[in-house]
Every structure is written in structure tokens, then in C-alpha cells.
Write a structure and sequence with these properties.
Blueprint: H1 27-54, H2 61-95, H3 101-117, H4 122-128, H5 133-137, H6 142-164, H7 171-189, H8 201-232, H9 250-286, H10 288-291, H11 302-317, H12 327-340, H13 346-366, H14 377-394, H15 398-404, H16 407-424, H17 429-442, H18 448-456, H19 465-484, H20 491-505, H21 512-549
């Protein structure tokens, strides 16, 4: 790929009739940028120290340094994601002269920030469910930390490489490839049945389907939308190249600014959650007492929580085989069920019932999750994780679940899952803020390379107002819909293919060299990220064992 695009200098030569991409920014803006960056990192450090002190979990200096390094890499991934994907939102407004380049990237950065802050968190944990069960349950082990560093570094390295040559690569694609690579490597390096049980293929298939469909959706929907616009909106200004240095008419300009805003907001809401999920894994591994359980749940919610656990346990007990001989055996049954992805059996139902009764008894005795002792936190969190994912897997086949359980029992199990999720899967406000700052600030640097590719090197003619609007409307709608469904999708794939679809619909051709390079990056990202992450995981695991043995 490096032979396809030469490394573009930061001050990109202005094309004939194109926008200015080399405008100087005010010197004070650099100081504002650095101040916000330093404040965000300081806020993260202060929050960690405060949270751990409140639960009596003092972190050793070595653990704190390790945690700081892991968080810096995770936030670095979001920062790189920001400047890698900014072009997808701002290229259209820049190349249609709707906004100047400096204003566009600041505007996009703010709405990326806002998108992260208002996100649901559903995408964060859909990413985590791709990871091997044993590593999630023991995320604080050497293997758990090797997993986190390997997948983060692999995704960052691939993102930086494709950015350097100006390719609109997908950060989502790179991260998911890294996760799958760690899963494969973990299974190959550990003893156990099955060559691929380290990967949840049902979840992986669901997510990968969204990734390969994204270019088709972007191309087809943008093509159709521009054709509809041409049939209904006959203003020729919409479909003519913008005049040099002249902004579009007010109404068209408002439309393009709106689409830029929508894509920025949607991108923040979807992509920001990936960093949140990874940071939560880091925090659970390094400071489990403070972050393994949702200690913000009010004490008044405990009776309803315990009641739902008991009700669901009774629902499973009604269809269960004899319970395992002890709780250790119950945990082993559920762990095996998650690894093999088969949980709709009487044996699993019995294990869920036994462990559910024990969890309800423990939480009831403590009075609330906030009062769980430090020593008991990791075990309780792991048990709740096992129960949540086992209950979900046991009822995943809707038809079989409806034949096995009554409507009342299914309602009890659903309420049970919701309460377990509230107790274990949450995002502290400070994590949202720091990820939002990393993604938002990342949009303001390094954006020129990919802006040029999106704006100049996909279609053979200058981007028109209609082309930009149709591509971004499709991208924003698709990304927001995916976030609602808890699916990670690629902003890059959707919008780049949308620009291509709009170019074809406008009667312009495509530049085969660019399209071929983008397709090559799309095809190579998954195997390259998998290989890189798997190799790094093996290296880090080997180093940790060597240091431990020494």
C-alpha cells in the first residue's frame, strides 16, 4: 500500500479550485489544546485515586504506573481514531466550501465529544463479548494484561500505518481484528478442546456481518438518495461543482453543516464506546475493588435485585437436572457452557440456579454492592458475569426458550439479566469524559491526509453539494441505527463508499487506483490486525512468564 500513496506533507498543496488546507491557526489554540489535554489526563488520574481511596484499595506505585501506561495506550487509540476518522465528517464541508478547514475540525471535534457523552454504552460491551471467557474472568492476570496491551497496540499500529499513506481505514475493523487475533492466540497457546473456542463466533459473525455490509450500504444508499434528490430537487446548484472560494447558498450550506454535525455526533457515539469498554477492562484488572462492581447502585435497589435473582433461579430450577455438587462445580459448568456456546441444557440450568441462590444470599447479607468487601469483590463480579452471560446464552434461541420456559419465567429471566447488567456493566462518568476528550481532540490533528483522499481521490470530478449531503446523511443514519442496536460499525467504510456511490450517481466515474487501494486496505485489515495482535499477545505472555520465572 505504501507504493500507492506517497506520504503527504502536513501543508498539502492546494488543488486547483479546491479548498485551502494549509491555513495557519492562532498560536493560542495550541496552548488551549495542550491545556485541555493535560486537564483531561489529570482528571483521569484524580478520579482513579479518589475512587480507589473511597473503597480502601490503595494502589501500589508499580500497579499505578502499569495502570497509567495501559490507560495512555487506550486513550491513544481513541486519539488516533479521532484524527484518522475526522476526514469522514469534515471532507464534504471543506470541499464544498461550507466551512473552513480549521473551523470544520473544531466543530467536528466538539460534536464527537458530545456523541461520546450521550452514548448508551451498549457498543462497549458488545465488543468485550468477543474476548475469550477465561481472559475476561481473569483480566487481572498476566494473560489478561497481555491481551489488553496486544490488542490495543495492534489496532494503534495499523491505524497509524494506514493514516500515514492516506488510506481511509476503519478503526472498528482494526480493533475487532485485534480482538479476534488475541482470541485465536489464546486458544492455541492454552490447553483445551477445539481450535477456535477462544472466539465467540456467534457474536463475531454478527459484528463482521455489519462490517462487510457497511460499504454496500454506503454505496447503494448514497447512490439511491442522490438519484431521488435529483428527481425531486431540481436546483442545478446542488449538482454543480462549487465555485472556487465561494460558500454555497445559505440553505445548502445549512444542510451540509447539519450532515457534518450528524456524522461527527454519530461517530463519537459509536467509536467512543470501544475505548470505554477497553478502559473498563483495564480498570477491572488493576483496581477490581473500585471498578469490578457498580458501587453507585443505591442501597434501596438491593431488595429488588435479590428478588429478581431468586425468581430467575427458580425459573431455571423448574427445568434443571440435579445441581452440581458444589459452587466450584457450578462455575465450571457455566464456564464450559460459555466456551462452547451451549447453555440451553438442564445441567446448565441447575448450575445457574445454584450459583444464583448463592449470589443472592451474599448480596443480601452485604446490603448493597457498595458494601461488598474488597476481598470478595473479584469473585462476586466473576460469578455475576458468568450468570449474566449464561442466562443470555440459555435463552438466545427464542423458539426453544419459548418451548422450555413460560412467559412469566422468561420475564423473570429478562429482569434478572437487566439487574445483573446494571451491577457489572457500567461506565463511570470520568471514563466517558476522558474518552470524549481523547476522541474530540484527536479530530483536530493529522486530518489532512485522509481529507485529501476522500475529497479528491475517490471520484473523478470535484465533489458537489448533493454528493456530500447524500453520502453524509446515509453515514449518519446508518451509524446511529447501529448504535441503537449495540453494533460497532465503520464510519470510514460507510462514508467512503457513500462518496463513491454518490460519484457514480452523479455521472462521474471513480478513480480505480484509489478504490483498489481502499478495497485492499479493507481486505487486509482483519488478517493483518489478527496476526499483529496474536503475535504481540504471544510475545507479551512469554515475556511475563520469563520475568515471573526469573
Amino acid at each position: 500500500m505504501a507504493t500507492t500513496f506517497s506520504a503527504l506533507p502536513e501543508a498539502v498543496e492546494r488543488p486547483s479550485g479546491g479548498p485551502r488546507l494549509d491555513q495557519r491557526i492562532h498560536p493560542a489554540s495550541r496552548w488551549i489544546f495542550l491545556t485541555i489535554l493535560a486537564a483531561g489526563l489529570g482528571f483521569a488520574g484524580y478520579s482513579i485515586v479518589t475512587d480507589t481511596a473511597q473503597v480502601g484499595e490503595g494502589l501500589a506505585l508499580g500497579t499505578l504506573a502499569f495502570l497509567g501506561l495501559a490507560l495512555m495506550i487506550a486513550l491513544g487509540f481513541e486519539f488516533v481514531n479521532g484524527f484518522h476518522d475526522t476526514a469522514n465528517a469534515v471532507a464534504t464541508v471543506i470541499y464544498t466550501n461550507s466551512m473552513s478547514a480549521p473551523l470544520a475540525v473544531v466543530w467536528s471535534g466538539f460534536f464527537n465529544f458530545l456523541g461520546v457523552m450521550l452514548s448508551s454504552g451498549a457498543v462497549a460491551y458488545s465488543i468485550i463479548t468477543l474476548l475469550p471467557v477465561d481472559l475476561i474472568l481473569h483480566v487481572g492476570s498476566n494473560a489478561g494484561f497481555a491481551m489488553i496491551f496486544a490488542l490495543l497496540l495492534a489496532a494503534v499500529i495499523w491505524n497509524l500505518g494506514t493514516w500515514f499513506v492516506g488510506l481511509p481505514n476503519s478503526s472498528s475493523h482494526a480493533l475487532i481484528g485485534s480482538i479476534l487475533g488475541v482470541g485465536f492466540a489464546n486458544q492455541l497457546l492454552s490447553s483445551g478442546a477445539g481450535g477456535t473456542s477462544g472466539v465467540d463466533w456467534s457474536q463475531a459473525t454478527k459484528i463482521l456481518t455489519g462490517l462487510w455490509m457497511a460499504p454496500l450500504i454506503g454505496f447503494g444508499a448514497s447512490f439511491l438518495l442522490l438519484r431521488v434528490m435529483k428527481a425531486m430537487l431540481r436546483n442545478p446548484v446542488l449538482y454543480a461543482p462549487p465555485a472556487a472560494d465561494a460558500p454555497p447558498p445559505r440553505g445548502i450550506r445549512a444542510l451540509l453543516v447539519f450532515t457534518c454535525t450528524a456524522v461527527s455526533f454519530a461517530h463519537g457515539g459509536n467509536d467512543g464506546q470501544k475505548g470505554m469498554g477497553l478502559i473498563m477492562l483495564i480498570l477491572i484488572g488493576c483496581a477490581p475493588t473500585a471498578y469490578a462492581l457498580n458501587r453507585t447502585m443505591p442501597e434501596s435497589a438491593t431488595p429488588a435485585f435479590v428478588s429478581s435473582v431468586n425468581a430467575a433461579g427458580a425459573a431455571f430450577a423448574a427445568h434443571a437436572a440435579p445441581e452440581p455438587v458444589d459452587l466450584a462445580a457450578s462455575r465450571a459448568v457455566l464456564t464450559a457452557a460459555l466456551q462452547t456456546r451451549h447453555a440451553d441444557t438442564p445441567q446448565v440450568y441447575g448450575a445457574v440456579n445454584a450459583l444464583s441462590r448463592d449470589v443472592a444470599q451474599r448480596i443480601g447479607a452485604y446490603g448493597s454492592l457498595d458494601k461488598v468487601p474488597a476481598a470478595a469483590t473479584p469473585n462476586l463480579r466473576n460469578d455475576m458475569y458468568l450468570l449474566l452471560d449464561s442466562a443470555r446464552l440459555a435463552t438466545k434461541d427464542k423458539e426453544k426458550a419459548a418451548r422450555t420456559f413460560s412467559e412469566g419465567e422468561l420475564a423473570s429471566i429478562k429482569a434478572y439479566q437487566s439487574n445483573l447488567e446494571k451491577g457489572t456493566r457500567y461506565i463511570p462518568l470520568w471514563v466517558k469524559i476522558t474518552v470524549a476528550l481523547a476522541l474530540g481532540l484527536g479530530t483536530m490533528v493529522g486530518w489532512r491526509r485522509i481529507v485529501v483522499t476522500v475529497g479528491e481521490k475517490i471520484g473523478k470530478t470535484h465533489m458537489t453539494y448533493g454528493m456530500g449531503a447524500s453520502a453524509e446523511l446515509v453515514a449518519a443514519a446508518t451509524i446511529l441505527g447501529a448504535e441503537f442496536g449495540g453494533l460497532p460499525v465503520s464510519t470510514t467504510h460507510i462514508l467512503s463508499s457513500g462518496v463513491a456511490g454518490a460519484s457514480v450517481a452523479s455521472g462521474a466515474g471513480l478513480q480505480p487506483r484509489t478504490i483498489g487501494s481502499m478495497a485492499l486496505a479493507w481486505v487486509l485489515t482483519l488478517p493483518a490486525a489478527m496476526a499483529l495482535a496474536g503475535g504481540l499477545y504471544w510475545l507479551f505472555l512469554t515475556l511475563s512468564r520469563t520475568v515471573g520465572a526469573g
